[in-house]
Amino acid sequence: MSALLDVRNLTAAYGSLTVLHSISFSIQPKSITTLLGANGAGKTSTLRAICGMISRKGEVMLEGRAIQAMRTEAIARLGVAHVPDGRGTFLTLSVEENLHMGAMARKNGPDIAEDVERYYEIFPRLKERRSQQAGTLSGGEQQMLAIARAMMLRPKLLLLDEPSFGLAPRITEQIFETLGEVRRTLGTAMLIVEQNANLALGIADQAYVLETGSIVMSGTSAEVMADESIRASYLGY
Questions:
Q1: Fewer CB within 10 Å: C terminus or N terminus of the chain?
Q2: 179, 203 Cβ separation under 8 angstroms
């Protein structure tokens, strides 16, 4: 099967500071891949480099098409949605207005309204608060909204940066259960950056481990989870 996303020899930098050192990985259609690593390892920078948000060199191929020279908005129109750390919701807009913002790259039509209702079914809490300003939502509700808004693009690939950050364990588990359900029902491929390695490996097919901007291990989630060094460093046993 051809890769949905194929990253080859990707190097990225903030000014003169290089943060990714010629990393390569691929993501298959309808799969979930996770990036693990300590703070500062380069996980967030990897997502930003894919989206064209920071300076990068190397190849980034989406369905065989080179996107490394494209601007962020052009990459989004091709079907790459990004849920950044901090969630990035439009705090002064209502829940429903945020969802419609997620569909701005699509043509207006009844299918947009249908998608809004679909995500209200997936996240019933959002439906209860559809007219409420996003800035007044709880952290968990804002994360639900950020994911739903990104999915309004109908992406081929969803990039998620620390979806569990700042959330209670029960809400975190709910978010990850929902991500798994979205993949099963809609076939959306995902690349998840996550500190909670147990949760991430629990839903992922493939995993990559980053250290100081380089990939030091890769394999199926089961293979990575079975590695003694990974268990000691990230899984706590």
A1: C
A2: yes
